Amino acid sequence: MSAKPSSITEIDLERGFEVVRSKAASSADGVFGPGSTIWQVDREALVFLGAGRALLLQLAHPWVATAIAQHSKALSDPIGRFHRTFEIVFTLVFGSLDRRRNPRLLQRFCETTQRALCSEL
Question: For the whole model, what pTM was predicted?
């Protein structure tokens, strides 16, 4: 496997959230807001067509493939995995600043998975 990945601590994550909140469109419109390019692109159904290609690119990395094989329900529940992924993506793009829970949960899950993978080295 390749070198150990670096991790983002909860303190780093919270500092990042503070920066994002200070630059956000508004509390209700979230980080980007309805006038942003990302809102224009991600609101289109065509974004789903890129999901398969994005998955293939991610799986090409050995850390990602190992993490999915050992710590994900993607193989046994691909539709559920698809829904959970897009729930997080759409919350990050379209959600209000009050919907910050998802990025924190995602970071904790990734940190736990990363620790498990690093312990196997």
Answer: 0.62
